[in-house]
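Tokens as discussed.
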């Protein structure tokens, strides 16, 4: 958005809503990565709004997998078969969790309140 478009937005629209409606609007705006104002503008003007799965969640899972792998390599000298199996199960579970994250955008209307 250019600066000239921002300058043109000088009208303020107010609306009343319940606490639940307010929370739902803010939750959907945050999930879409938009400000509340931009979310409401796009909704009112029938513009497209898409939400992506939380990328921070995926990054955290990758970080935990890296830490688990680091621990595995540090414990090589004291490794038992049972301990190795436990490390393998944890790494496999983390990998499945990362693969299960669907990074496909979906319409915000499909989000449950």
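Sequence:
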């Amino acid at each position: 958005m250019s600066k000239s478009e921002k300058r043109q937005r000088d009208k303020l629209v107010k609306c009343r809503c319940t606490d639940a409606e307010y929370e739902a609007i803010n939750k959907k705006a945050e999930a879409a990565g938009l400000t509340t104002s931009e979310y409401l503008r796009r909704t009112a003007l029938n513009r497209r709004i898409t939400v992506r799965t939380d990328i921070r969640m995926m990054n955290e899972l990758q970080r935990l997998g890296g830490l688990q792998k680091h621990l595995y390599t540090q414990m090589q000298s004291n490794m038992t078969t049972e301990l190795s199996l436990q490390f393998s199960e944890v790494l496999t579970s983390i990998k499945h969790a990362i693969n299960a994250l669907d990074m496909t955008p979906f319409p915000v209307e499909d989000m449950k309140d």
